[in-house]
Design goal:
Elements (H helix, E strand, L loop, with lengths): L7 H12 L4 H4 L3 H11 L4 H14 L3 H6 L2 H8 L6 H16 L8 H5 L6 H12 L8 H11 L8 H14 L5 H14 L19 H4 L16 E12 L2 E6 L10 E2 L2 E3 L4 H10 L4 E13 L3 E12 L4 H4 L4 E5 H7 L7 H11 L1
Parallel strand pairs: 1-6
Antiparallel strand pairs: 1-2, 1-4, 2-3, 2-7, 5-6
Helix pairs in contact: 1-12, 3-4, 3-9, 9-12, 10-12
The structure holds iron/sulfur cluster (SF4).
């Protein structure tokens, strides 16, 4: 069953003109701004991104400054957004743009696709919004909106379904406003055609054209197979303190939170007694030990169930002060310089509060 989407275009554009949220990267859609915002918006809501975006482009206002930024500074600017590979790829791509395109983003969908971290969706968004090139930008919001309008039970996780929708959108894309059209679909998905069975159909500009609304099947669409359950891991996290400095450890360059700073951790959740014995085995003499309670952090494929302990050490054995993968950071360094991922926030928040 095919649906002719042609009629929805003017209604969507009209609605977008009156309802689009005012966003810095929309007010000034220069390629660099559109790019940074689109990368930040992957996995993160618009409201949360606003502050990060302003801070990022104030400190790194152009591709050259991004390419030349210190990695530690870059990670700090990204702290809290998670998925740190996104910002590492931003910088890799900025270096390539500086070298191969004289610091200007290429105004070409195909060339954008060759840059690290820029996939089909992001290349489509930058091309259409920043350069007015008529290519689709299909994300989860767009898939949901379009499949509901068509009343389609296609599995939206299938590549063939995305490809078919791409062709459908190419056919109806207004050549004079491709960026606005793509954004109208994204915006409708974010503001009105909400996920998890709760669309606000009475506020929708295409309600009269929407098959899901007409057939009363909005709650059943879009169709996607159930996600695999996340792996669960128990961990004990240590806020190790010695002379008002805290131990942070650099993770390996591959895998989860690759190359980032973490609070030292141990597999499994240890009781206070078990931890005392472990620390003794490590040759660490403790002056004080308090539980920081339980916390959970959810990554895309793994869930950490943690218990934290604040351990104040009496002395520091030589091997701990000379281990290059461990830094003893003071409060200011921990807060302003090193980027410690959100997963550990439950156990570092007291230090931050103390400083403020
Ligand atoms: Fe989505 Fe409802 Fe609009 Fe259809 S009418 S597109 S289900 S918000």
């Amino acid at each position: 069953m095919t649906y002719d989407y042609k009629e929805v275009v003017p209604y969507l554009l009209h609605w977008f003109d009156r309802n689009a949220r005012i966003l810095a990267w929309r007010e000034n859609p220069k390629p660099y701004y559109v790019w940074v915002s689109e990368i930040m918006l992957q996995q993160t809501r618009v409201e949360a991104v606003k502050g990060y975006f302003d801070r990022f482009v104030t400190e790194l206002p152009d591709i050259k400054s991004l390419a030349q930024a210190e990695e530690e500074r870059l990670l700090k600017l990204w702290e809290g957004l998670g998925y740190y590979n996104r910002v590492r790829n931003l910088q890799k791509a900025a270096k390539i743009i500086l070298k191969e395109y004289e610091g200007e983003m290429p105004a070409s969908y195909e060339r954008l696709l060759t840059l690290p971290g820029i996939g089909v969706y992001t290349a489509g968004a930058i091309s259409s919004i920043a350069f007015g090139i008529p290519v689709p930008a299909i994300d989860g919001n767009v898939l949901r909106v379009m499949k509901r309008i068509a009343g389609s039970f296609d599995d939206i996780t299938k590549e063939s379904v995305k490809k078919e929708l791409w062709q459908d959108i190419v056919k109806i894309m207004p050549k004079d406003r491709p960026g606005d059209f793509n954004q109208s679909l994204m915006e409708l998905g974010a503001m009105v055609c909400l996920p998890n069975g709760k669309p606000l159909c009475d506020q929708c500009p295409v309600m009269h054209l929407c098959k899901a609304f007409h057939d009363d099947i909005t709650q059943q669409l879009p169709v996607k197979p159930a996600k695999k359950e996340r792996r669960k891991e128990d961990r004990t996290i240590l806020l190790l303190e010695y002379q008002n400095r805290y131990a942070i450890h650099k993770r390996m360059e591959k895998g989860l939170l690759a190359g980032l700073w973490e609070l030292p951790g141990i597999e499994n959740k240890l009781s206070a007694m078990e931890l005392s014995m472990t620390l003794k085995d490590w040759g660490l003499a403790t002056e004080q030990m308090n539980s920081l309670g339980d916390a959970k952090h959810i990554f895309s494929h793994v869930e950490w169930n943690m218990i934290g302990y604040h351990v104040i050490l009496k002395e520091l054995p030589l091997q701990y002060s000379s281990d290059n993968s461990i830094v003893w950071a003071d409060t200011s360094e921990l807060i302003d310089f090193y980027s410690v991922p959100n997963a550990f926030r439950a156990f570092t928040k007291d230090i931050k509060q103390k400083k403020n």
